[in-house]
Amino acid sequence: MNIKKIENTIIPINYSELWENIPNEIRELLYFTNENPPENLDKIGISLSFSVNDGLKMGKLGTSHDPSTIYFPLPITVPINYDQVPPPPRYPKYYRLTPEQKFIYLNWLKDIDRPIHEGYKQLFFFALERQLIIGNFDIAWDTILRLNKNTSKYEFLSFQSIDTLFSACMMNRLDLLHKMSCIFEEPGWDDKQILTKYYTNEPIEAYETMKINCYNANTRYFRVAPNDYTEEMKTLLQKKVGSTFILTEKFISENNRKKSHIILGFHNSSFPYELRNLDILLPDTSALLNFIQELHQECHEKTKIRLKNRRKN
Asked: Rounded to whole angstroms, how far apart are CA atoms 208 and 184?
């Protein structure tokens, strides 16, 4: 199927008013066609192929068609009662939306900063992922960041967008990591946050060690006495590394790489396996994680003693 550009696409009358109200910078990020969806759309379609050695190639038959493509022949309907329109499912596809859902989605694109069910945002997100690979990378990356800022950190899309932004940076765009302050808002940290600190030359503060997932770490005092725990952690760090923070470059080397335990990749179902599961070797963080694990073990005991002494007094 030929997904056409706007200057070559005839906008049907039922779409025209909605389409004209979508800002140009958003329209340029969408994929659309005035052709009908092909039959058996979920079984076969045009997709991307990717390999580390050969890069991206177009036109390979894949197992799923792009979920974000807007098919203008499909009907849209203004809802009589918006509250009665069911939300899209997780991993939505435009051609599977009801006419009312299609209207709500296109109407929301007029202002993507407005609140809306995350299923609609996820559909737009899939279009942005496609732009990262074969379109305008920088505008798409910034728009995903914008989408993330208007998404609750507890929504599934928040985790998806962080994964995608970080994965895109690991594909030779480390210069963008300094813009990803949102990555540190996740409640639990892993290699994504640690390597972002590493590549942006930012230290890990004492209170941030409580966010780093360490195996067998006793997290009791993280919850019941975070201030006491942080003070004990600062004392420990001062003793062990001479500062109240951790410099990641003392534990991580660019030349020491391995397969990370985190999954890198994109979420658009039309992408091939190689893009949804990127095989990228990342700097080894195990030495830093082991050090933080030891800190937690010692800090737990010291915090326990501090609280016990306080109760005595």
From this structure: 9
Answer yes or no: is 44 within a domain: yes
**Beta strands 45-51 and 55-62, pairing class:** antiparallel
Distance between CA 268 and CA 67 in Å, rounded?
Answer: 7
Task: Note whether 88 and 33 are same-domain residues.
Answer: yes
Together in a domain, 111 and 219: no
Rounded distance between C-alpha atoms, residue 252 and residue 284, angstroms: 6
pLDDT of 5 = 41
- Kindly list the distances between the CA atom of residue 273 and the CA atoms of 108, 213, 246, in Å, as whole numbers in the listed order: 31, 27, 36
Residue with tokens 């299923």: 119
- The pTM assigned to this predicted structure is 0.84
Give the count of domains, the chain.
Answer: 2
Q: Are residues 7 and 144 in the same domain?
A: yes
Considering the domain architecture, whether residues 180 and 300 belong to the same structural domain is answered as yes
- 211 and 140, same structural domain? no
- 36 and 119 in a single domain? The answer is yes
3-state secondary structure (DSSP) of residue 284:
coil
Q: List, for residues 212-250, the tens digit of each pLDDT value.
A: 977 667 888 888 999 999 999 999 999 999 999 999 999
Q: Say what the pLDDT of residue 95 is.
A: 94
Phi, psi (rounded to 5 degrees) for 200: -100, 5
Residues 36/274/154/120 CA torsion (nearest 10 deg): -10
Beta strands in the chain (DSSP E): 32-33, 45-51, 55-62, 70-71, 204-205, 245-246, 257-259, 281-283
92-133: per-residue pLDDT in tens? 999 999 999 999 999 999 999 999 999 999 999 999 999 998
* Distance (Å, whole) CA 71 – CA 94: 8
User: What is the domain extent for residue 74?
Assistant: 1-151
pLDDT for position 291: 96
